[in-house]
Design a protein that fits this description.
Blueprint (H helix, E strand, L loop, with lengths): L11 H22 L11 H8 L3 H13 L3 E4 L3 E4 L4 H22 L5 H18 L4 H16 L5 H18 L8 H17 L2 H12 L8 H13 L2
Antiparallel strand pairs: 1-2
C-alpha cells in the first residue's frame, strides 16, 4: 500500500460555483459601467442573489472580487455599496494606469495582428462619433473597448491583473468628473496608437502614451476653479 496521500480531486460543484461567481461579477460590473448602479448605491447580497437566481455564496465572492478592484466599498456591520471615487482618486489611478499600460505597450506592440488593428480602428471611430454629441457613458465604453485589446496579448499575468484592476476605477470615476477631460487630445493619442500598432512602432506607441500622461483629470469644475483663482489673486 502506498504511503503517498491521495490528492484531493476538485469537485464539479467548485467549477460550477466559479462560473456562477464570474457571471455575477460581470453582471454587477455591467450595471455599474452602464449606470444602473450609481456610486453610493447600497448593495444587498440577498437581494442580488434573488435577482440573479443564485445562492448568496457566489454573490458574496463576486462582491469581494469587486471590492478588491475598488468598485465596491464596505464598512463592517454598516454598509456595502458602489464605491464613491473622487476626481482626485481618478487622477491618481490614471497615473498608475499610464505607467502600467506603457509597460504593456512595450511588451506587445511588436506582435499586434492586423485584425486587432482593425478592431482598434473601429472602436476609435466609434469614440470620435460620440465626440459630436458627448455622452460620458458612451465615450467611456468606446474608450475602454479600445484600450482593452492590447491586454489580451500580454503574457504577463501580473500586468494584466494590475491594468484590469485600475481601469475599472478610472472608468467608474470618469463618469462623475466635474468637467470633461481634453477629449481631443485623447482622440489624437488613440489615433497615434492605432498607427503605431499597425506599423509595430514601439517609439510611436510610447509617444502616444506620453501624450495620454499629459492629459489632466479635472478635480474641480471650471467655474469653481475660476472662482478659486480670483480669490487667490485678490490675496496678493
Amino acid at each position: 500500500m502506498s504511503d503517498i496521500p491521495e490528492q484531493e480531486v476538485p469537485q464539479a460543484e467548485s467549477f460550477a460555483t466559479s462560473s456562477i461567481v464570474t457571471t455575477v461579477f460581470d453582471s454587477i460590473l455591467a450595471d455599474v459601467h452602464e449606470g444602473r448602479l450609481l456610486p453610493g448605491t447600497r448593495i444587498s447580497d440577498s437581494d442580488l442573489a434573488e435577482k440573479l437566481g443564485v445562492s448568496r455564496t457566489p454573490v458574496r465572492e463576486a462582491l469581494q472580487r469587486l471590492r478588491e478592484i475598488g468598485i465596491i466599498e464596505a464598512s463592517a456591520s454598516r454598509f456595502t455599496r458602489i464605491s464613491i471615487i473622487s476626481p482626485q482618486q481618478t487622477a491618481d489611478a490614471m497615473v498608475v494606469w499610464v505607467a502600467l499600460y506603457g509597460a504593456l505597450v512595450s511588451e506587445v506592440i511588436s506582435r499586434v495582428p492586423p485584425e486587432m488593428v482593425l478592431a482598434m480602428r473601429a472602436d476609435h471611430d466609434r469614440f470620435v462619433e460620440h465626440l459630436m454629441n458627448p455622452d460620458p457613458q458612451k465615450l467611456a465604453t468606446a474608450n475602454a473597448d479600445f484600450f482593452a485589446h492590447f491586454v489580451t496579448l500580454s503574457t504577463n499575468p501580473a500586468l494584466q491583473r494590475g491594468i484590469t484592476s485600475v481601469v475599472h476605477q478610472i472608468r467608474l470615476g470618469s463618469l462623475h468628473l466635474p468637467d470633461y477631460i481634453d477629449l481631443r487630445a485623447l482622440s489624437v493619442a488613440q489615433d497615434l496608437l492605432v498607427h503605431a500598432a499597425r506599423d509595430h512602432d514601439r517609439a510611436a506607441a510610447l509617444g502616444s502614451m506620453r501624450m495620454l500622461g499629459l492629459i489632466e483629470i479635472p478635480v474641480e469644475d471650471s467655474e469653481q476653479a475660476d472662482a478659486n483663482d480670483k480669490v487667490v489673486r485678490t490675496e496678493f
